[in-house]
Amino acid sequence: MNLAVRDIRHNFGRFVLTTIGLGLLLMLVMGMGGIYRGLVQDATLLVDRVDADLWVVQKDTRGPFAELSRVPTNLEDRIRAVPGVISSRGFISATIQRERNGQQLRITVQGLSWPQDRGQWLPIVAGRALGQAHYEMIADQSLKLPLGEKIKLGKDTYTIVGLTRAMTSPTGDSMAFFTIHDAQAIQFDLPGEAIRLERSARYERAEQTDQGRSQPQAIELNRGPSSGIPALGPPSISAVLVKVGPGFDPEKARAVIAQWPDVSVYSSDDQRQLLISGMVDKSRRQLGMFRALLVVVSGIIMALILYTLTLDKLHDIAMLKLMGARNGIILALILQQALLLGCLGYGVAYVVGYWVFPWFPRRVVLTANDLWMLSGVVIGISILASVIGIIKALSVAPNEVLA
Amino acid sequence: MSASTNHRDAVLEASHLTKIYGAGHTEVVAVHDATLTVAGGEIVALIGPSGAGKSTLLTLIGMILPPNAGRIAIGGTVVFDNNRTQVNVRRFRRQHLGFVFQKSNLLPFLTATENVRLAMEINDHPTRAAKYRAMELLDYLGVGERAGHLPSKLSGGEQQRVAVARALANRPNLILADEPTAALDSVRGRQVMELFRKVAHEQNAGVIVVTHDQRALDVFDRIFEMEDGALRAVDADRLRLGGDTINSEVLR
To answer: Residue B178: closest CA among chain A residues belongs to which residue?
Structure first.
């Protein structure tokens, strides 16, 4: 006869409420772990998916996700000449914030190197990859922009041709993918008046120089667009992504590029590590501390619940002892209830979390490893929490029945 | 003082039991040099004023507390000898003793039949046999039709009958009852006392009942009075006829 189950059946309402309470507490523990995993996944999502062996960035910077990095567009061509390199792609990453229909819309703009990179590697759940050099974009579902929607960014209007799932930046903003030229246009967009003022100032400056005075044609060039002035380079990009050929050691290509004085080069793993240790580390430690505290709080609350449940049964336990019940029967009564409470609480945490976590502003990722680990922790704290109750129960004298 | 039976098949032989609580200035002698023998099939009453030591004597015999001095043998096995335990107390208790109290002390989360079964399952009886005997006992005690009810759904008298069934479950040598009718009205109280007599005679168990209920004294084979820790036999026949004298507070 299982006394634990019968006692629970007798106090079913109280047990259910206790289990739900504990389950919600465990859901927070689970959620904290999930938020941390989400942070790491968000931070490393692009690095993991973009399929690059090396990231080449501005000298002494940590890459486009950690800080501002600017490299010239022609770096792509220089890198292509390195032995073993089969492709190099420009990459732009910048976050913009625009107002749309009265709502703030934060987008991490990612520029893909058209036409080599059309975004085929993205997890497209609807629509297609980029199909033309301009005015198309692939947006993440979390932006809540439907397929075919047209959105004005800067001076141009872009059509959403594809939707991705769970593509967010390390800061948690939704990503959108454009060709690199469109991304530059969005990133460096200036109002018409600012452009006119800059051209005029440029003209004035040129007039002050000997060269300007002696070469009126050169002054005239300054009245035109920046792209028409040979002395000005094209807008810079954030990084160049490098892929080496099969069987070729990326470290050899890296060693060559690392000798160049204007760039720094990282492997994908380095970039990943930089992201985790730089952007996520503080959040990870903060969440870890919260998680540890919540586990301790859960343990204390469970211990109190089990202690109270045991106190309620002290008379019955004394009676069991008087009847000659072995300690094992009494121990099993408390321990089984503790484990049942822990396991059902864990189940409640999982089920409620399954429905609630998608509504969290940041992604909550529950991995099988984390879930197994938490279940182990729950069993551990269930056993530990029952210890006080067990000690109390075993110290009850059978003659307390007579009290 | 001592009291004994002439029966040869004694289920209880307690001799020169002494129990002292506290020490020094706070020392209280709860039981002093008490000797008692109870035979199988015999029902014995322990009467006396509050604080006389009746319940303490019962806890010594029930192996709930160890005596400071004296010897206890139950069913021929010496269980205590001069403050030294001779057996595994809990195992011996579940195999040889049954308890009934003023309150039924049934486990509230078990039905009547489960309460009885539990006593047997604790004693390693197979579940099937325990179920059968539990129903048999509940029928025997007249509460068979209430077998599936929780204690909270039973009347006080029914609860006590279930408690008696639980006490009988393991066919004990000795049943110890501490004021089992105190919470019952006179009719139900008498029914329970008669039940004990029936059980004692039919199950051949020794029954010791601590009671204040003078209306049911005729049920007992022998009556003992305790006062200030000392035990003395009372002539049951003369008491019933009003011939023997008992401390006036004894039966209050």
So the answer is: A402
Contacts of A157 (CB under 8 A, 6+ apart): A135, A150, A151
| Rounded Cα–Cα distance for residues A15 and A313 (Å) | 14
CB atoms within 10 A of CB B89: 18
Q: Which residue shows structure tokens 């099937």? A: B128
Q: How far apart are CA B81 and CA B86, in angstroms?
A: 7
Closest alpha carbon to B118 in B140, B145, B151, B85: B151
Q: Which of residues 308-367 of A touch B (CB under 8 A)?
A: 315-316, 319-326, 329
Looking at the partner chain, which of A7, A398, A402 has a beta carbon nearest the beta carbon of B55? A402
| Domain total of chain A | 3
Return the amino acid letter for A33: G
Q: Which of A340, A336, A333, A338 is nearest to A314 (CA)?
A: A333
The answer on A257 and A162 residing in a single domain is yes
Q: Is residue A270 part of a domain?
A: no
Which residues in chain A have Cβ-Cβ distances shorter than 8 Å to B91?
324
Residue reference for tokens 């994908």: A268
A107 and A241 fall within a common domain: yes
Q: Do A338 and A327 lie in a common domain?
A: yes
Determine the structural domain holding residue A292 and report its residue range: 3-43+280-402
The answer to whether residues A121 and A239 belong to one domain is: yes
A60 within some domain: no
Render each residue's pLDDT in chain A as its tens digit; 403 residues: 888 889 888 888 988 998 999 899 899 989 988 888 888 887 777 788 778 899 999 998 887 777 778 888 888 889 989 999 998 888 888 888 888 888 888 899 988 888 888 888 888 999 999 999 999 999 999 888 899 999 988 888 999 999 998 888 877 788 999 998 898 888 877 777 777 787 778 777 777 888 777 877 777 777 766 666 666 666 678 889 899 988 888 899 999 999 999 899 999 888 888 878 777 777 778 888 888 888 888 888 888 888 888 888 888 888 888 888 888 888 988 889 888 988 999 999 999 999 999 888 888 888 899 899 989 988 888 888 888 888 888 888 887 777 6
Q: May I ask the CATH architecture of the domain B2-240?
A: 3-Layer(aba) Sandwich (3.40)
Interface test with A, best of B94, B103, B105, B152 (most A CBs within 10 A): B105
Say if residue A128 is in the same domain as residue A239. Answer: yes
Indicate whether A227 and A240 sit together in one domain: no
Give the amino acid at A338.
A
One domain for residues A202 and A137: no
Q: Report the residue of chain B nearest A313, measured CA to CA.
A: B107
Q: Does B96 touch chain A (CB under 8 A)?
A: no
- The length of chain B, given as a count of residues: 252
- Indicate whether A255 and A153 sit together in one domain: yes
Q: Is residue A102 part of a domain?
A: yes
Out of A3, A7, A322, name the one closest to residue B64 (CB): A322
Whether A178 is in a domain gets the answer yes
Contact B95 A399 (CB under 8 A): no
CB contact under 8 A, B105 and A401: yes
